[in-house]
Structure formats: structure tokens, C-alpha cells
Design brief:
alpha+beta, rod-shaped, 20% helix, three-stranded antiparallel sheet, 1 helix, seven-stranded mixed sheet
């Protein structure tokens, strides 16, 4: 084998391979960080929340049942577990949309939710309220970080009529 080919095989080719590996690792690292919610600047927190009922009635002391479909319209995986899991929750509002109770129970995702994937969550809400009309404002929350509405994601309102 000539000296020229030995140089190409033993010096140039390994340098090209190592360069390709380093470049690929940088690209894959950015994709990994984005998909796993680690690239905070590029995160799009967008959810579509679709309950099976938008108007419910219940007596004080009862509980209401809702089946809620959740669609991840963002660009990263919503983790079910870990240090900052994503949950479905709601805020209790009066008829004028004034917040009565901001933090309420969290409802777990059945599994990690990739972008464009959806799931259904069964929600049971205790009705420990005086008879009146209320609103349940559903939103997603990345625990310890933010509510999705703070990042521009729309919330969903369900009318709640509490009767005697």
C-alpha cells in the first residue's frame, strides 16, 4: 500500500469519523434536551383540554366525574414522573371568573406524553361548596415550574352548578 493511502486511512479518515461523531452528538444533544423539557428557551407548552361535559350539576357533598382528553400540542415530552411531572389540575372560579381556590388536586398522566399524543384522564372532583354557580378552569401544570396558561396555553372552562 502506498504512503498516501496509509496516511488517508490512518490519519484523515479517523479525524473525519471523530468530527462526524462530535457533530452528531451536538445535534442529538439539542434534540434530547428539547424532547425532555431541558431546553427551557425552546419549550412550547401547549395543551388542548377536552372534557366530556362543559356544564355539570351536583349537590353539596357529592362528587362530579369527568373524563378529560388531553392533547400535547407542544414540542417536548410531558413526563409522568421525575422531578417535574406534568399534571392536569383546575382552579375554582366564581361566576365573574375571580379565583376562589387556585391550587386543587393534581391528576396524573397515565404515561409520558409525546408531542401530538393524547390521553384520557378520569377526574373526580368533590363538591364541598355552597349552592351557587361556579367555573372549573382546567389547566396543565409542570409541578415546581409553571402552569401552562402562564406560557400561553389556553385553559378550558366547565360550568359547575351546585344545588341543595
Amino acid at each position: 500500500m502506498s504512503r498516501k493511502w496509509e496516511t488517508i486511512l490512518l490519519v484523515v479518515l479517523p479525524v473525519l469519523i471523530i468530527g462526524f461523531i462530535i457533530y452528531n452528538a451536538g445535534v442529538m444533544s439539542r434534540i434530547y434536551m428539547l424532547e425532555n423539557g431541558l431546553d427551557q428557551d425552546s419549550k412550547i407548552c401547549q395543551a388542548r383540554i377536552l372534557p366530556d361535559k362543559y356544564d355539570v350539576s351536583a349537590k353539596t357533598g357529592d362528587a362530579i366525574q369527568l373524563n378529560v382528553e388531553i392533547l400535547n400540542q407542544g414540542n417536548y415530552i410531558w413526563m409522568r414522573g421525575g422531578s417535574n411531572p406534568v399534571y392536569l389540575s383546575y382552579h375554582l372560579l366564581d361566576q365573574k371568573k375571580q379565583v376562589l381556590v387556585f391550587d386543587n388536586p393534581r391528576y396524573e398522566l397515565p404515561h409520558d406524553l409525546r408531542p401530538d399524543d393524547s390521553c384520557k384522564i378520569s377526574v373526580e372532583i368533590p363538591v364541598d361548596l355552597e349552592p351557587d354557580n361556579y367555573l372549573l378552569e382546567f389547566d396543565m401544570v409542570e409541578e415546581g415550574s409553571y402552569w401552562f396558561a402562564e406560557k400561553g396555553s389556553p385553559t378550558t372552562l366547565v360550568k359547575l352548578h351546585v344545588i341543595k
